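dumping this here so i dont lose it again. seq + smiles for zinc ion
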Amino acid sequence: MFKKDISPGSKSKVKSSVQRSLRTQLTTTYPLLAPHIDEIVPKKEQLDAMKIPDRVTLYLIGSTPLFYQHMTDLLLPHLRLVHRFPTCFPSIRIDRGAIRFVLSGATLMAPGLTSAGGRLPTGNSEETRKYGETAVEGEGFYGGRELEPGEPVVVCAEGKVEACAVGLLSMGTKEVKEKGKGPVVEDAHYLGDGLWKLALGD
Amino acid sequence: MAEVEGAETPIGPTEPQSRHIVYCGVCSLPPEYCEFGGTVKKCQDWLQSIHPDLYNRIWSADALEAATSSLSVEARKRAEKDAHKKALKAEAAEAKQAATIASSKVIIKRVERNKRKFVTAVSGLEAFGLDNKKVAKDFGKKFATGSSVTKIPSGGEEIVVQGDVSDEIEEFLLENYKVIPEDNIELVESKVKKGSGSG
Ligand SMILES: [Zn+2]
């Protein structure tokens, strides 16, 4: 979605009623963010909106990007926000071989997740822990409950601590396991893309 | 949409929970991802000098061995080829950027508006990766005068500062925007042609 470089658009202030509703949307979509919402979008700080190409709105406070939204789709976290709160977003993991494809803007395909280095939810919906990778290989947690198509997901990578992409699932994680092929996340926001590099100055 | 203020917020931790992340000063990615950019060597140098501990963790022989052992020989070869291509591309882009900088000029033009009234127009800053709007703001603050970005007929933009401040602007640019070499700044003078007859 952000393969090309983006030049910063003009910022506009978000009305406080809209800011409240965005906070609600965020905590509804990402319940694990709820305890941190006052830190991420403080009630008293001015939230700004920046229009960027392809009908995407980026929300930020000062020069800190927080989340973005394509038209009226679900709010997705900017990767810098994911890095600040990595355990609060449903995550899956790709194997090492898939990293360079994802970082060049390619669609994430199922084999990158079903191979030995990939990780998907266990399927046991009772299981809940803190999401994401840890510094110790094998200790990362990639969810109990299977994720449905259309759900937002953070993409971690084998051998890396920080996440490398975020996007919406075009295939549910159960189906990924069953089929083992096909596109899983299209149009992701990934490290080094236009949104990542967008200069927000101050 | 109904808004339920307050209902959404369970009591959160009082200490900030946000992690602080070091990003690469060269390619901007988390340093563990530098290997996928085209500037690996530069990234390594930067990391080693600024964050030696992080450098050792990421680039130690053990870490590299663990990282590649999971790839097949063929996949490793392809990845290497890909990395090499990227490096060449990055080098070419850098060379091009350097060439643009060498051949670009910032023009500081003194323009006479009325009798003894001057404005100073600055153009060509974009070639040095500078944002006209931001620089205009800096000028305004520095010289406590009107400073704005206007479109010029040839298609680009220029910054128009009220008053004759050519020399001050040159000095200010050299001091604050070190990307511009001194030789690439040119001071010119222009009189507004108001009626072609000479007096
Ligand atoms: Zn780097």
